[in-house]
């Protein structure tokens, strides 16, 4: 059984991501954890004792959080009757990135699915600050669903890569499983900045081909003349891409891409769901 975390701030964007997840995992047996985190508008001295649960003074934040979670669960049960799915609600006095990190290890999560924006998200940016911080701290895959994106099924999946390292097969397994489950075509795209691959890149490319050898429809493309973000954007439009998957090594290209002030500059406004996979492979010395 897969264990999936669904963070929510009760916004339309969060609900849209929840609906997407329920469709995405429709045929899978899943335990969904619906999470809401909250912090006070002002910090009370009694929180030093351990938060609202340890305080004798009522905290309206707890009540709002629990009521919102119960309403969300009721809404799911009314609209989606799937015997494969079970649910648990979680309310936490914490920041979202820290709580997601903690729950990922405590509940042994397989994935986090969340919206790209929250209730107060700035629409000019692809990813809201909460999503960015969750991805930075994530130890499990994070699937970010754009605002108002409706589930359509997935026929083509895009994986941009620089062939810098030998990816670990277990870290690519969520992508491989997704490709198989949807019987999708996988497109592996590399931006050739120097117009040819180095020997190291060629070796890493062969390694990646070996990992994907069980997949029937994998297309490897080396593109020249454009930077990676622009290639990704145009490739999505031209190839009916339903999901973009990227490996995320801290302090690398994706880390820079996710910084809010960089997103608008590179023109990367992804309009399809975006799967971020942790990458702990070793960099060449």
From TrEMBL:
Pfam family, one: Usp
Residue intervals passing through the bilayer: none
Domain of life from the UniProt record: Bacteria
SUPFAM superfamilies in the cross-refs: Adenine nucleotide alpha hydrolases-like
Domain UspA: 1-146
Recorded family membership: Belongs to the universal stress protein A family.
Protein name per UniProt: Universal stress protein
Species this protein is from: Flagellimonas pelagia
